[in-house]
Amino acid sequence: MATRRRVAVIGGGIAGLAAAVRLRDRAPAEVDITVYEQSGALGGKLRTGELAGGPVEFGAESFLMRDPAGGESAAVALVRRLGLAGRIVHPTVGQAALAVDGGLRPIPGGTLVGVPGDLEKVAAVARPTPEADRDGGGPLLGTDQDVSVGALVRARFGDEVVDRLVDPMLGGVYAGRADDLSLVTTMPALARAARMEHTLLAAVRAAQAATPRVPGEPVFGTLDGGLSTLVDAAVAASGATIRRHAAVRELTPTGAGWRLTVGPTRDPEHVDVDAVVLAVPARPAARLLADVAPEAAKEIGGLDYASVALVTLALPAPVLPELSGFLVPSTEGLLVKASTFFTTKWGHLRRSDGLALVRASVGRYGDEEQLQRTDEDLAATVHRELSAVLGAPLPAPVDGHVQRWGGALPQYTPGHLDRVVAARSALRAAHPALRLAGAGYDGVGIPVCVRSGETAAEEIITALEGSGR
Fold it and tell me: Do residues 25 and 53 lie in contact, with contact meaning Cβ atoms separated by under 8 Å?
């Protein structure tokens, strides 16, 4: 009779749940899987709520349909695996704008996360400095070099391209600043091209050519019924035992695997397992690894995170432009850094009563004190700033919701991927049945997190097979 083996997945976000599904699909039948989630809610930043009688996302809104190589993204593959492909819907309005100089201007086409591949196309928003993008006789980046996005683009295209294009686009994803964020981590295709091309313009064009888009093919998708349906389906498919409100406070290696210390200090529970997928943010992971894998803990423990608040307003019949939303450069001096017109962007959310759902993102890295405001103050400020950007007073909201995500978005400084590689190498050598997964290591976005969890699960399966346990 086969010995039952136990795998603990610490962290019930989408990376942890993807790991649990992959373990169920690929591991032997006698493997028991338990997911430990410190909070009461699964899914991490995937959370569908209700506002004014309709569904709305209080966290992540959508996923990329394609991976960087042009194939189906890991998120779409997981959706198919879970039998939800028929629920995929796409934006009905894709054009977004920039809030600059007191008005809205369409985001120029032909850019790579704001970095232009055609300088003339961005002239209405920013004034590039093409004379600075000279061929210096060698590639922009050395083989193992990493720099901040802002440092490279400022040197080649000037401050306005960074401040009015690149920074708001990166800020919309990471709540961070181009001058701090790693090029290799946040824009890997451009980093690869920059190791071969001699000018930034050539590197952008090469990166765009390496990831061609089919005209008319949707870039983003979401699920009719909300992304929480993905969470629920993953839980069901994993067959895992789910432990909510179960904080894992300590990891201790044993001869056969790991001992987890779970729950309050005064009344802890001890659980022995054969392997662990550690799918929690970098700092909690570093605390758990401090005694058992100090080298790995040191490499990941310095990763910082930005906090954000998402303010959603239900507005009765407002006059909105035919846009998916807009981004706001920090130079505009607004609290709002991005806004999405949900019921304009997503046709399946449009309502016959004319009620519009508008969401604004508040909070930039380094400005966390702004998030100390009350929910009422945040909502009022958002309403006032949206009205100013749109050039007319918006109607008073009939409902609203403020979702605060503390420490939500990793801030990848140059050298991040090298630090992660070092941490994983140290773990692989000392503790082959322990793996890291999640946004803190591999990048933000649902597909990246899904792939991270699945990769960790595959490595755990290999480690267990190799151990003979």
Answer: no
Q: Tell me the per-residue pLDDT of 175-232, one tens digit each, with 9 for 90 and over.
A: 999 999 999 999 999 999 999 999 999 999 999 998 877 777 899 999 999 999 999 9
How far apart, in whole angstroms, are the C-alpha atoms of residue 207 and residue 187? 10
Tell me if 211 sits within 8 A of 68, measured CB to CB. yes
**What value, to the nearest 5°, has the Cα angle with vertex 358 and ends 321 and 389?**
50
pTM to 2 decimals? 0.95
Which is more confident, 2 or 214? 214
- What is the crossing angle of helices 14-26 and 74-81, to 10°? 60
For residues 382 and 397, what is the distance between their CA atoms, to the nearest angstrom? 11
- State the Cα–Cα distance between residues 26 and 446, nearest whole angstrom: 21
* CA distance to 21, 70, 261, 293, per residue, from 7 (Å): 12, 33, 15, 19
| Predicted pLDDT at 213 | 77
State how far the Cα of 268 lies from the Cα of 447, in Å rounded to an integer: 35
Q: State the Rg of the chain over Cα.
A: 23
